[in-house]
User: What shape does this take?
Amino acid sequence: MYSEECYIVFPEGDMQEVPGRLHINQLVDINGFPVPLPLSTNKTLVYRISQITRKEHRGGCEIYHYLEQLSADELSEYVRF
Assistant: This one.
């Protein structure tokens, strides 16, 4: 049986399992769920998927989604005015 496990990796190095695959440049919340756009404010905690790596092993693979935190200035372009 083949299994696939997906994780998000925070900038500090902490990891958390997520239910499925994510995409490069996708915006996610602290739990790894996609953020609905447009945002109501730029004062929210949002991460961008900056890198994805895979570790293949017998019977499955592990997919790591590396996060970068966005600043309030970067989030301003996603805010509804």
Summary: The chain has one domain: 3-78. The longest strand covers residues 47-57.
